[in-house]
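hey
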């Protein structure tokens, strides 16, 4: 239950998130407190979301990243959502403010332990994602 509330608390800071990359490497002590590992191990594993399969493991009595990194196939429609999303009806920043779209909230897209190919690159959506689509211009 704690996993759900921690993730729900975090979700109060953005309007939408989509993930094309899942998984991470534990590279430092602060990684042990990452909200994403408990969320990936809990909710996504319980619902058998393919992107998160095998990305977490139980080690020394706590959930942690396994080091397995997964990327959705290039033809997955998730890649184009930031280009077409019109924004939240009621943005968390308030009426008349832009929406916050968090791409890859469940992985580190700049993980130094792996090669990031073009299909998962944040630059792919940079020009439009930053302006919240047509309403944010």
């Amino acid at each position: 239950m704690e996993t759900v509330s921690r993730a729900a608390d975090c979700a109060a800071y953005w309007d939408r998130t989509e993930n094309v990359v899942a998984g991470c490497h534990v590279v430092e002590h602060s990684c042990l407190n990452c909200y994403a590992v408990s969320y990936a191990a809990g909710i996504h594993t319980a619902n058998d979301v393919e992107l998160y399969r095998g990305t977490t493991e139980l080690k020394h009595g706590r959930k942690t990243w396994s080091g397995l990194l997964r990327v959705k196939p290039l033809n997955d429609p998730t890649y184009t959502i930031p280009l077409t999303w019109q924004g939240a009806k009621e943005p968390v920043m308030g009426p008349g403010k832009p929406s916050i779209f968090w791409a890859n909230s469940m992985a580190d897209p700049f993980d130094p332990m792996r090669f990031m190919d073009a299909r998962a690159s944040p630059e792919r959506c940079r020009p439009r994602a930053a302006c919240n689509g047509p309403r944010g211009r």
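The helical segments are 2-11, 35-46, 81-84, 126-129. The chain has one domain: 2-136.
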